Amino acid sequence: MEGCTDKARARALARQLRAGWTPAQRRQLGEGMARQLAGWPLWQRSGAVFAFCGTAREPDTRPVLELALDGGKTLYLPRVTGPGRMEAAPVRSLAQLVPGAWEIPEPPADAPAAAPETINLVLLPCLAAAPDGVRLGWGGGYYDRFLARCAAPGAVLCPEALIAPFLPAEPHDAPVGWIVTERRILACRQG
Questions:
Q1: Which ranges of 79-167 would DSSP assign to H, the alpha helix?
Q2: Could you tell me the maximum CA-CA distance found in the chain, to the nearest angstrom?
Q3: Rounded CA gap, 118 and 9, in Å?
Q4: What pLDDT was estimated at residue 190?
Q5: What is the DSSP letter of 116?
Q6: Which residues of the chain fall short of a pLDDT of 50?
Q7: Are 170 and 113 a contacting pair, CB within 8 Å?
Q8: Fold classified for 7-187
Q9: pLDDT of residue 159
Q10: Are 92 and 185 a contacting pair, CB within 8 Å?
Q11: Residue 8: its pLDDT value, please?
């Protein structure tokens, strides 16, 4: 993806690149990301992981979620609690998930919210990412607000084709430490 200094233009470019993904391509991206995570020391030593359920416009995260559950990790997923707000709640099985905000699968309402300090690693969605850790989100600010309360390191799940040389960022945009693609894990250079 080309670099961009305007968020609206960057989001439009990223959406355009994603538009033609088939379910098989989304699944391949998710499987590749899961393979990268499986060999990553930070993943291996993280007992509690906060991840997300990919939508039809994102890589299929099911392979990543299954990797966490099969590996005995405590898996937390987002549950929307209000405009721009979410919390992490545990799931023991993907069969527990129920349709939440925007029909995105999330933990049931009776699953207890996790204290952010119990999380060892946060996996975030994005439209695109840059090598300096700037993550272009979907525009709701949910993850930036959550990261402000959580000290765990963050890694974005981003297809290789959506890594841009640079992206616009605002002061409230929380950078990530790593980009996980279907081919590699890139340590971000901050600043």
A1: 142-147
A2: 43
A3: 37
A4: 64
A5: G
A6: 191
A7: no
A8: Rossmann fold (3.40.50)
A9: 97
A10: no
A11: 86
Provide CB contacts within 8 A for 171, sequence distance 6+: none
In this structure, are residues 125 and 53 in contact, taking their beta carbons and an 8 Å threshold? no
Whole-number Cα distances in Å, 77 to 3, 29, 68, 143: 31, 20, 12, 12
- pLDDT at residue 167 in the model: 93
CB 147 within 8 A of CB 87: no
Tokens 């850790």, residue located: 133
Q: What are phi and psi of 100, to 5 degrees?
A: -115, -145
Q: Which two tokens stand for residue 9?
A: 């233009």
Can you tell me the distance from the alpha carbon of 27 to that of 163, in angstroms, rounded to the nearest whole number?
A: 19
Where in 58-167 does DSSP place strands (E)? 74-82, 85-91, 98-99, 105-106, 121-124, 128-129, 135-136, 154-157
pLDDT given at position 60: 97
**Predicted pLDDT of residue 105:** 95
- Predicted local confidence at residue 155, as pLDDT: 97
